[in-house]
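Same chain as my last thread, 472 residues:
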Amino acid sequence: MFSLTIFLAPKLNIYVLGKKLAQSGKRQMHIGFDDTDSTKQGCTTYVAALLIEELEKLGVTFLDYPSLVRLNPNVPWKTRGNGALCLRIEYPQELEAKIKETTEDLVEAHSDIDWKGTDPGIVFLCSNEIPQEITAFAKKAETTVVTLKEALKLICKFHAEAFGYNTQRGIIGALAAIGETFNEDYTFEAIAYRTPENLGTKRRVNEESIFQMDHALKPYTFNNVDSETGRVVITPRGPDPILFGIRGETPETVKKALALVKPLEPVERWVIFRSNQGTDMHLSHIKTLSEAQPYSSIVAKATVSRQPEIVPVRHVIFAVKDQTAEVDCAAFEPTGELRKIARQLVVGDEIQVYGAARKPHADKPLTVNLEKINVLKLAEQTQKQNPVCPNCGRRLKSMGKNQGFRCEKCKTKFKDLQKTAVAQERSLKTGLYVTSTRSQRHLTKPLRRYGLEKHGKPTEKLVAEWHSDASV
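reply #2:
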């Protein structure tokens, strides 16, 4: 049996669900938390960095790198990066109450709880294994919409504990972070944080060192710079405490990258995270366009059914269809090269579209906001030309609408000849095209990662000094 207790406090609702298990010796706990930040301050990964240090002081052992799990980027209520965190630890039974108290106090102290739309959640799961139902819940949270009711049902079933603030929506992400075990693919990110006195100011990092790092470590780091614009993309622009974050294939690589980048302001602390970033985990392959659901990200084969057109602000819109439905596709201006590729499509091209399905409106069908286009087969494109002279082979000239053609060389006139369709060579080639680095979502797999995917449950040991509260 489980118990349910609800505590009410100003601006705070706490749900406690679960059964206290009397057990001596070492135990394993998974601590998930989400939605501590707002548009004006805070960062959930920073809360994780602080909590790691506090838990180490208590004497816990970390079983893995902290998990940074990006959830479905299409839900209307998503946070800035829509990332949830999980810490996996081993600890003596007598520390359990102190671990939970420390976590709750730190999350509450560093969450922007008073900001509308900030709804932190914490979940504690004491278990050596993650139940398959919770893993399935995590996959669902990465690809579609899940509800708090679904999360609470699983929390009750597996005797976990959940604390929620305001609307408690953060409990969803907290449970999903616990459930993501990275059995399919994963990457790493080393994040360096700013000192308090520099928050809100322009980030200062030697940009040349970033380009040098990117060149030295490619293809094993990714999304450091935007090659189309020459812009650095590892430094965020918001008010959060992140100075820069470097994504890569191994913890050793991102730690090496961290040493190659030269910050021009103090670094307060840094942490290496295991993540689903750059893995395409948000994409669902569907067999027909009629299966596309709003707020999901899809991969679907279809045929171009309406010629691309440019709409205001240089966005490109076209339509695709299959035997079940027709939908619009949009390549927005920031997608860069992808927008240029979309402009070259013609009716009849067979393609695979990757992107977010946007809810249809009264005057607009369901629209796929494109992240990638895989050109599978090009339709033949023809251009009508005047016929050639049967006598001398020279291209004829028209004498006017419905008046036939005349050869300027031999002066012969032809009343019955028609223009002929001539196949044109197309500059567009088959293959996969991805949106520009500057507009890629956290989960979008860049071209640099293709062929480097990982498979199976992570087994590597933690590197020495995978986090630090000292200057880099």
